[in-house]
Design goal:
mainly alpha, 284 residues, 81% helix, 12 helices, single chain
Length: 284
């Protein structure tokens, strides 16, 4: 897991730049094909070395996918629907973060870890077939290159956004890591209750996505300051979980809403500030 996570973080920028000249549709299709093959190889692996290579393959695909998915969605969206297209991606990401691990774990416990990898490979292959049918060609214009990096570094708005992203994401997932034991030990909730509360956070992403698609581009600075202030306040209010399940559910719902809103606002701002090198900026 550490090797895979490290590769995703370290390789996102260089692999995105090295593949930037290829048509975006071609890149997405190639990534999904390799991702499916990597998971199929993991399912069939008989040795640890083979499993490790399979995970490295999927990690490299993962690192590039998020760099090009956001710019691609905003490019193929109908005019005036950019924020809505991006909000759908952010919502699905929130749901996948919350639902993916428990569903994958449940599937693996009942049918074995090889079956779990096989299922992921099959889903990726299915998505690839859908994209082959419906995704239009998208040239690689304004993707960026290594020569774009000095220009990105000179942009004060992007520097601030990158730093804020690093701080916000680190803070959020540091807290999220300990949320389950905190709910159990401080709130006294059962494992089933905590699982439901995590689902509340995930499904709250739909509300945050809807709000973000309507207001993130309109509010300018407030699109970041309001949800960030809300996240800070909600962290301070976490001890309210002692007062009962409904209070905990309310905190989780507002947290999921604010979190989705702020991630959407970050990506919209990065895209707005980097129209000439969107893929590279999003990779960072």
């Amino acid at each position: 897991l550490k090797v895979r996570a490290g590769l995703v973080a370290v390789m996102a920028l260089p692999v995105t730049v090295l593949t930037a000249k290829r048509n975006r549709r071609t890149r997405v299709r190639a990534l999904l094909a390799r991702f499916s093959a990597g998971n199929a190889m993991a399912a069939a692996s008989g040795r640890f070395a083979v499993l490790l290579c399979a995970r490295i393959c999927s990690a490299l695909c993962h690192s590039v996918f998020w760099s090009i998915a956001t710019p691609l969605a905003t490019r193929v969206a109908p005019k005036g629907q950019r924020a809505k297209a991006l909000s759908i991606i952010v919502t699905c990401t929130s749901l996948a973060t919350v639902l993916g691990i428990p569903l994958g774990t449940l599937f693996g416990h009942n049918l074995g870890w090889r079956a779990a990898f096989g299922l992921v490979a099959a889903i990726a292959l299915g998505v690839l077939l859908v994209l082959r049918r419906f995704l239009p060609p998208e040239p690689s214009s304004n993707a960026g290159s290594f020569k774009s990096l000095p220009e990105l570094a000179r942009c004060p708005q992007l520097r601030k956004l990158f730093l804020l992203t690093l701080i916000t994401i680190t803070g959020h997932f540091t807290v999220f890591t300990y949320l389950s034991p905190y709910m159990m030990q401080t709130g006294g909730f059962s494992g089933r209750d905590v699982a439901f509360l995590l689902l509340v956070i995930g499904f709250a992403g739909i509300a945050g996505s809807w709000l973000g698609s309507r207001y993130a581009e309109r509010w300018d600075r407030a699109s970041l300051t309001i949800p960030l202030a809300a996240l800070a306040a909600l962290l301070a209010l976490l001890p309210l979980v002692r007062t009962g399940f409904m209070a905990a559910a309310a905190v989780c719902f507002l947290w999921g809403t604010a979190w989705t809103f702020v991630t959407l606002a970050y990506q919209l701002r990065v895209l707005a500030c980097s129209t000439n090198f969107a893929d590279v900026a999003v990779a960072i």
